[in-house]
Amino acid sequence: MLDSDLLLRIYSAGCFPMWDEANEETGIFRPDPRAIIELDRCHVPRRLGKRIRQRPFRITTDLEFEAVMDACHEGRDDGCWCSPEMEVGYLELHERGFAHSVEAWLDDDLVGGLYGVQLGSAFMAESKFSLPEFGGTDASKILLVETVRSLNAGGFELFDVQFRNDHIDQFGVVEISADEYERRLAAAMTHPRDWPVESDGEGLMLAG
Fold it and tell me: For residue 70, what pLDDT is reported?
């Protein structure tokens, strides 16, 4: 049973789970090298920076964790990497304060989101989505940038994106060895940080 306790042990060891749809089993992965975004060196492409300054979305956090997770797993061309059992485990992590979501809203519609796991001052981004057909163009990219900025301002030390790919590379992803990642993760886990939320009760993400 991949419950929240087991997920915490997996992430604390510098690994993460992924559902293998073809073999119908959960694998545990330790990429080497590991892809991260240095929180104080996130690159924002010029066009996206202009879009961010227009503030096209209302950005909240932890208001719709389950909806964000579900949307991230729907309609993936590469298959679903998260099993129903894993989803239950992530929901437990969220209820315990170890997993968070960030949401983009256009009026009352959820048009983008991301979620991940927090250990101390480390955040492991798991997945993100946007719905351009409903006005959510660039929503997931904007959420990534705003989350990095907020975590940097809040004293976080590590932002993990697992693997490099063409989409994430535009934000200045760097690769470090698995050993270096685990050293940085261990240090970050000893430095607890509050998840950055405005104090107005609406779950608004702090501006970068």
Answer: 92
